[in-house]
Amino acid sequence: MRKILFFVQFVLMSTIILAIESSCDETSAAIVHNGKILNNIIATQSVHEAYGGVVPELASRAHQSNIVPVVSQALASANIDKSQLSAVAFTQGPGLLGALLVGNSFAKFMAMGLGIPLIGVNHMKAHILAHFIEDPKPEFPFLCLTVSGGHTQIVLVRDHLVMEVIGETQDDAVGEAFDKAAKLMGLPYPGGPLIDRYAQQGNPNAFEFPRTEMPDLNFSFSGIKTAFLYFLRDATAKDPDFVANNMADICASYQSALISTLMRKLEKAAKQMHIRHVAIAGGVSANSGLRKAMEDVATRHQWKVYVPKFEYCTDNAAMVAITAHYMYEKEMFCGFDASPLPRMKI
Ligand code: KG4
Ligand code: ZN
Description:
By secondary structure, the chain is α/β, with parallel strands linked by helices. The protein has ten helices and ten strands.
């Protein structure tokens, strides 16, 4: 009898959340049990490779075909029946409307059917909270440089759910600057990881690219993107094989210009805020040059730096699940009439 009571108590106390991510081109589902991530299933959409960027309509259609198998796999591999779920979480925004809508509708109907709470998660907060999936976890307050295909922000993180953007790009995101340059060189989407790979063999001082210095803690990447376009146009006019013959040096020089812009602002922010705990997050935080720059600056300034595991850099549902775990503790639920918010702010 006592054993049964304990079991009932344990089951009642245990919080199991299913989280869904569908903001861009990855359909992902994860299960979190009392703050511990049990899995992180990701279906990547290769359909966009041929187009040099994410095609919103195709992303939405791919999410529709992927969502049921991805969620089923997450439940099955964690050995969880949907009747055991305490809540369903989904990425509410920011992201592509049609893509967000798929995760939003699926989560909504699942939570409604099961009679459990629904949690609408902010994708950018989730990128930052990916640092709380495993140890070592950052100490508050810390600064996070959040760099993805759609965002470039410096965020002051005061607590799990209390964050403030203190600087951000005024035009393109740094991930976009990577992807557009790659496209100009004939590389497939997403070009960021390919530029990273070529850059590892190249000389970062081979070519010079202008760096736009914005006031305060803001960024601008549209200038360097245009400069890159003209640089390639002029160089290939003189030598049609210029890109093929100089790929590693071009990638290393361009990447180095982007990283030094990011690091200068991050150093400025840390100095201004008197904070030495600094993290990076988002897809571009997978970049080996940026990860190395973070290590270097940590040594130089005695910062404590936090660099996410590769699997938690790009879009994934584990980061949505860990965010939902903190939101569940505070009963931050949304109504069943919640709609996607493509421009949702931190
Ligand atoms: O966070 P994320 O998966 O999706 C968005 O929320 O945007 O970030 C995707 C971005 C793409 O621009 C991709 O090229 C970039 O992250 N990325 C990288 C690397 N891995 C992913 N950029 C540079 N180096 C990498 N290793
Ligand atoms: Zn993202």
